[in-house]
Amino acid sequence: MLPKGTKNLKNLRYLDIRNCHELTSIPVALGQLSFLRKLSMFIVGKEDGCGIDELKGLALEGELSIKGLHNVKSSMEAKNANLIKKHNLRSLSLSWRVSSNKSSHHQNDEEILSALQPHSNLKKLRIIDYQGLMFPYWMMDLLLPNLVEISLGYCERCHQLPPLGKLRFLKVLNICRISALKYIDDTFYGDMESSFPSLEVLSIREALCLEEWTTVNGREHFPLLSSLTVDCCPKLVKLPMIQSLKQLQIGETNVTLLAPLIMNATVLTSLQISGFNELPDGLLQNQKQLVSFCSLKSSSDLLDNLSCLKQLYIQDCSIESLPAGLQNLSSLKTLSLNCCDSLVSLPVNGLQGLSSLSSLRIQNCKTLASLSEGVGYLTSLQDLLINGCPELTSLPRSIQHLSSLRYLQIRCCRGLISLPDEIQHLTLLSLLEISYCSNLMSLPQGVRNLNALETLRIRGCHPPEKTV
What we know:
Elements: E1 14-15, E2 38-39, E3 41-43, E4 62-67, H1 75-79, E5 89-95, H2 109-115, E6 124-128, H3 137-140, E7 149-153, E8 172-176, E9 183-184, H4 186-189, E10 194-195, E11 201-205, E12 212-213, E13 220-221, E14 227-233, E15 247-253, H5 258-264, E16 270-274, E17 292-295, H6 300-303, E18 311-315, E19 334-338, E20 359-363, E21 383-387, E22 407-411, E23 431-435, E24 455-459
Parallel strand pairs: 1-2, 3-4, 4-5, 5-6, 6-7, 7-8, 8-11, 9-12, 10-13, 11-14, 14-15, 15-16, 16-17, 17-18, 18-19, 19-20, 20-21, 21-22, 22-23, 23-24
Organism: Gossypium raimondii
Domain R13L1/DRL21-like LRR repeat region: 52-176
Pfam family, one: LRR_R13L1-DRL21
C-alpha cells in the first residue's frame, strides 16, 4: 500500500509502481498532483477520490496502465478521465481486473471503453478482460492511426476483430483468448490494397472457437510478417500461407495445417512445434536454412538435411535415445533436452559430429543415468548444465576432453555421489556450481588444480540424515 499522504507531494513528477503486483488500491486524490507527468499505473477504486476522474487534470506522458475498470460506474465518469486530451501518452493499457484472480463481467463495458478514447498520438494499446460484444468505434474506425503495437487479451465475448489491416505503422499484434471469435475474414484487413503493410510479429493464442482464417484474393497481405505464433486453436482448419515467415511457433492446432504452412515458408529460420502426437513425413525437407528448431517430438528423419541448424530443443517427449540424424548437425551450437523421461543415456558414438556445439542443457530427464563417454567428443562445448536428473550418479571420465568448457552447473541431481578426478583437466573452467545434490559427499582432489576457476558455488549438498 502506498502512503496515504502521497497527495501532499505537490512537486512529484514521476511515480513508478509498475512492478507492484500486489497493489490493489492507490491513495486518494492523486489528481491533486498537478506536476505529475509519469504515472505507470492507476487502479480505479470505489471510494471517493479514487475514481478514474482523478486522471482528468493530469498531463501524463509515456506509459499508463489503468486497472480495475469494473469499478467505473458510468461512461460519463470514464470520459472525465480525459484520455483523448493526453497527447503525450505513448502506451496505454486498459484492464477490467486488478489481479489475475478478479475478472470482470460489467454490463457497461462497451460504453465505458468507448468513452476511454485515447489521443491519436498513441503508439501502444493493450486491452485486457474487456467483456463487451464489440470493440469501440475508435478502434473500428481507426482513430488511432499511429499505433505500432496492439495486444488484445481475454476479451472473451468479442466475435469480430477491428479492421486492423488499415494501420500503416502496426508492427506487433498479439491476440489471446478471444473465445467467441469464429472467423478472421475480410473485415480484419480493411479495404486497403495492401493490408498490414508494416506488421512483423503476429500472435494468436487460445482462440478456442476459431475455425477459419482467410485472406482476400487479389490483395497483398502481411508483406513484412516475419514471426507468427498460432497456439491452442483446436478448431482452426484454414489459415493463410505466408512466405515471408522467418519464425514460426505452432501448437495444439489441426495437424493438417502443418505441412502446407511450413513448406510455403521458404525463408524459415526458427520453428517451434508442440502438442502434436505425430508429425508429417518430410515436414522439413525444404527447410535447409532452418537455424532453430524446437519440437515435442523429434526423430532422425526430421533432422535430415538441416545442415544450417544452430539450435535444437527437444522437450516433453518419450524418446529413449537421441535421433541418429543428430550427428549430421555440424553447425549446431545449442542442444537442449527437457523432460525426456525415457532417455537413459546419451549415445556413445552419436555425438562426434557436433563439432560446433557450445551449449548443452539437460533438464528434468528423470531416468537419465549416464551422459556416456561420448560426451568427450564435444570439444567446442563451453556451457554444460545438468538439472533435475535424479538417477545421474557421476560424470564420465571423458569430461577431461572438454577443453573449451567454461561453465559447469549441476543442480538437483540427488543421485550424484561423485565427480571424476579428471575434472582437473578443464583448464578453462571459470564457474563450477553444484546445488542440491544431497548425496555428494566431497569434491575430487583435482578441483584444486582448476587455475582458471573464478566462481565455486556449492549449496544444499548436505547428505540426508539417517533415520532409525
